[in-house]
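Trying the structure run again after the queue cleared.
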Amino acid sequence: MKKPGFIITETILSLILAASVGSAVLLTMDIRSGGKILPQELFQSNTKTKNAPKETSGTKNEASTPKVGVKTQESSKPAEESKQESKQESKPEAKQESKQESAQESKAEATGMKLILEEPKNLKENPKDLIQKVEAYGYGADFLGFDNLILVDVGDKSTAKVYCYQKSSKDIWWNIAGEGKPITDKAFIGSGGADFDIKPGSKKTPLGFYSISEGFYIGEKPHTSFSMFEITDDIYWITDPKSEYYNQKVDSSVKKDWISADHMISAKNANKYGLVVDFNTPPADKNLSCEIFVRCGIEPTQGSIAVPENVMKEITEWLGANSNTYIFISP
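Done. Tokens:
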């Protein structure tokens, strides 16, 4: 995995959320500082072509507006000749393959690991599902100048699917779980849903692009060279907006100036493995929420992204020492 070929010095994100046919909200984001999203005033859009995504290398636009979430259907009816030719010969093979697949699935569940594919050798273009999501935010494939991307596809009722993409040795993105497949479809976000402007106590998850600076664990460290800190009894995450250390990790050596803080080791199950999302990074805006993680969980959260423990462990072990990793929380 190699470092990005360029550094994003300043990127402006423009997104149109249609409140009606003629009105929308313009949002901007500064990738350099970890992705702070600033809602701007409502404006009128008189043309569609002005904000239409441009065709980019590595992908083809089939229409001026990307169709996000469109699924293709394939016929499930086999040919009659195939049915008759395989009646006797394919049945035993099918049973054997089914047994092998079941055994592999059982082994994966028992060991807490899922299959991460090796880098395909015949990559020719970036995954269409990823590019559609990126283009919906006004970006092209050339925007993806980092190494790894965790895509959180927000669903209904605080549910989500999580996809993991990696840049290949040929600078082409690929899905480590297989084309079109999420690494988990059993993820959760904040119980208050997702939004761009999240206030303290809203229980919402922030939408947008953010860097992933480090990870954490309790007990045995995952097999990863990614930057990780161990959660011990004296580690706290400060949640008091009046504190100098708001939205920062501190230990017991720091002079206390806060009333509220998360004693991280108290949540042993949720914090067994996790990643820090660089939302509202220091100097933190005291009017915005704090403590956004990707961590273990099987239910809606206070604003973090929760995935099953085995998936969380696998994601941390997927990341390497020099990984330049971002998370894209997408509506």
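The radius of gyration is 22 Å. Worth checking whether this holds up in the mutant runs.
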